[in-house]
Design goal:
Shape of chain B: elongated
Strand order of the largest sheet of chain A: 1-2-3-4
Number of strands of chain A: 4
Helix content of chain B: 40-55%
Strand order of the largest sheet of chain B: 1-2-3-4
Number of helices of chain A: 5
Largest sheet of chain A: 4 strands, antiparallel
Oligomer: heterodimer
Strand content of chain B: 15-25%
Distance between the termini of chain B: 92 Å
Order of helices and strands of chain B: HHHHEEEEH
Distance between the termini of chain A: 79 Å
Radius of gyration of chain A: 24 Å
Helix content of chain A: 40-55%
Largest sheet of chain B: 4 strands, antiparallel
Number of strands of chain B: 4
């Protein structure tokens, strides 16, 4: 019975190919889900800021959000500033607030707020970029001078 | 014992055995390599390359081209909106007049001495566009404009919309300063 030739080169090639397969598969999966991750981060940020049962939840929520935003974005959001805290407190009148998402895509979240002191038909927008895995270049808007077509989309 | 001679499914012409597992692994690696390359190229696509549908671009460009010309602006709407779906001409005309009023209200300049002559797309999402209007000197005219819209099945006409201005509410926003100062 002949012994099969041993081919160490073949073993090495198989090892390299398997490593490449794992790298391509994992990296390709991560890259193909970048937009979904970006979209989820934006939605999560909006929920952290505006979806709560009790305003006393806000400090902890803001603290969580700080981990997901760049320093510049954090300063712009001004979430640990008194002005923002007081404004948010009085705006919501210490009532629960729920976020109703109208659109969430890479870099934008459009939503309504369900709170007795916020007009239900008002549309709010949160736009952002992702920089090195963190939310950056944030803008918050209220849609004003709104006009709708036959029924309107929002 | 292997003779290595003659035609055989497992061997090539010279009698060497084809390493099918290795061939399969190479094919899988090449395929995954192309997948990785494709997702990489998709990821580095510049934001400017993402544009709203042609009908949306046409609407804004034709509207602004006809600034000061109400008939021209109505034509822009007639070109882009799905008025053909209305049962009668009267209903379509009523919708056109209402849309004209809506777009005039939202897109007219807040400053009497400035007129919008062009626009640039800031953000695009499925059924949504955010634009900045520019005057003849190329200066931005805040607040920005945003429009959520639906298209007909062919994507040729706008069937419904919500349009408005984007008022920033952070005092640290550059746009806030430009709007409120």
């Amino acid at each position: 019975m002949e012994l099969e030739d041993r081919n160490p080169g073949r073993s090495l090639l198989i090892f390299v190919l398997v490593l490449l397969d794992i790298f391509f598969a994992v990296a390709g999966y991560i890259l193909s889900h970048q937009d979904a991750v970006s979209s989820d981060m934006g939605t999560y940020a909006v929920y952290l800021m505006y979806n709560f049962q009790d305003v006393n939840e806000l400090p902890e929520r803001y603290s969580t959000l700080q981990k997901y935003v760049t320093e510049e974005a954090w300063e712009k959001l001004d979430l640990d500033g008194d002005f923002r805290a007081i404004n948010a407190y009085y705006k919501f009148q210490a009532q629960t607030s729920q976020v109703h998402t109208l659109l969430h895509d890479d870099g934008i979240v459009a939503y309504r707020l369900v709170n007795p002191y916020i007009l239900a038909q008002d549309v709010w927008l949160f736009t952002y970029d992702i920089d090195d895995g963190a939310i950056d270049n944030v803008h918050e808007y209220k849609m004003t001078s709104v006009r709708r077509g036959q029924e309107g989309v929002w | 014992m292997s003779t290595g001679k003659g035609p055989n499914k497992q061997t090539g012409y010279n009698g060497r055995r084809v390493d099918w597992p290795l061939v399969f692994l190479i094919v899988v690696t090449v395929a995954l390599g192309f997948f990785f390359l494709y997702t990489l190229l998709q990821g580095i696509k510049k934001p400017e390359e993402v544009k709203p549908p042609r009908v949306v671009q046409l609407l804004f460009s034709e509207w602004l081209k006809n600034e000061g010309n109400p008939n021209g602006q109505q034509e822009a709407l007639r070109l882009c909106m799905a008025y053909g779906r209305y049962e009668t001409d009267t209903l379509a005309q009523n919708a056109l007049e209402e849309d004209t009023e809506n777009f005039l209200y939202v897109l007219s300049s807040r400053e009497s001495d400035r007129v919008a002559s062009s626009y640039a797309v800031e953000r695009v999402a499925d059924g949504f566009v955010e634009i900045v209007l520019y005057d003849a000197e190329g200066e931005p005219m805040y607040p920005k404009v945003a429009m959520a819209y639906t298209l007909d099945e062919q994507g040729l006409f706008i069937t419904d919309y919500t349009i408005g201005r984007l008022q920033p509410f952070s005092t640290r926003d550059e746009e806030y300063v430009k709007v409120w100062n």
